[in-house]
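If it is no trouble, can you show me the amino acids of a protein and the tokens describing how it folds?
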Amino acid sequence: MIACSVNAVLIKVACQGLEPKHLGKSISEMQHNLGILNDMYGVNVCGEGGEYETFTLDCPLFIKSIVIDEYESVVHSDDKIAPVGYLNFKKIHLQNKAGDLENLTLHERLKNIPVKTPYDYIAEIVGPEMQDGCNFSDNENDETDGDSKSLKSSNSGSFSPPSPTESKYDDEDYPDIPMANRSKTGWHWFGGIIGKDSDTKIAMEEALDKLSSLVEHEGLDMENLVGVTMYVKDLSEYSTINDVYTTRLPHTNPPVRVCIQCPINVPVVIDALAYKGIHQNDDEQVLKKHTMHVQSISHWSPASIGPYSQAVRIGHIIAVAGQIPMVPGNLSLLDMNIKRQCRLTLRHINRIVNAMDSSTQLRDIVQGICFLTHHSYIAEARKEWEKRTNNAIVDYIVVPHLPRNAHVEWWVWAHRDNNRFEYEETGRCVGNFKVAIRRRWNYENDVSAIVCYLSTRSSNSTGNLATETSLNSSELTDDELTEAFEYLLAKLTKDSKSENPTCNLRIFYKVANLPGPNMIRRVLDNFSNRNLVTTIVPTTHLHNFSTFLSVCGVRHE
């Protein structure tokens, strides 16, 4: 404000270190004192905590300045530690400023003022180290020009976006088996919900009707929803889908949301998470739902561009909406460079979880899914993630399209006690295939998460084979797939306090390949005695060429 020639004076003081004698002083006069108070008492130098209020007498936007002729100082509270006082203006007048300002355009008046553009606030994406806990620069990267103009004008630097991946679709019908289940502590999962009418609007209404019925059957209402994931056939129908969604979901404190386009042969598939606290005993408190639903535009992090919250916290668990690389100040998509898109998206996540809990950062992510629009982006996305944290287990899924034509969308959830989580990698061979699992769980073992890959034996943990593998009907049997699911469920439920805990599984498979949705569904029928909620999702590619099935599982107790 000072650098931009804003002449603002204090008209209210209400914190330790500020007194009524400071009323009427300009922010330039108070700058040094406010810095000292920040060091001594943590006073926000900008008064963001209500420490003081100002009144602007002059700034470059004004054609005339304001002059105070008469005022009175009022002491509202003569507290010894933090007195409260304010000014009452009795008489003021406008005064002409030097120069012919009335004939100057706004641009001409501001051309010498150091006003930042939305791109200036993301210049650190290719510039120096960030100041909020994560380094979002890349010292090894040859993109050293941090000038904001390069961000606006360069489409991709030295990077050329690959050709779009051709979308294939399964011939077999998608299983229509909506389901719900709950944990003993009030967590509810919903999955396998589809809308299959050829009309997208009717299909969306159909899917939300099914979700609403399941929610009601569980003794909940839609306000209890924590998160919703929508897998849609065609994102060009987003406005239609969103219009229906808006009429059915709560407008105040809505759930977080993830929306991606998948090669499904129905218009929409939905899964959801809800929470309603249960009194286990008289001494135990029911956890409250805390939401962050920022709709105003700022330079901090993107505003909500739909009827969803940026984050929802229940106890120690923080669910974050799917994040794409939008420039916060104007909600435009960052240039097409995948490195920059990943950095900006991860910065959004870091700021959101930190706003939900000041001690929580990107390193406290437990599990995530990185959706990308081309398999060639996976290596860069993994590199950008692992430069910042190796704590989380992250799956990489390739889909045809993402909102706003972004190349990347990250979906994550964090835990405030993430430093008390264990980690292991395990695996086994099933027939001619390999099952690889990464698992994380907390000391109490009431929260557990896995990412499981089923691959040909030619794969490695992060391998990028030159050619894509495919299976025929004789290579993978129902018994082998059943054995693989038995293994991953044994790991997900290992040492659980419950005899048959509820588990939520998102099962990703490569479209037009084995196993298809009906084979997966047929195998899952073998686990009808287990408390499972499953959603089967087709993709164009998984984390490497040899992987043909990927499962993200979670258990909350």
The chain has two domains: 2-110, 179-459+475-556. The chain has a mean pLDDT of 89. The longest strand covers residues 64-77.
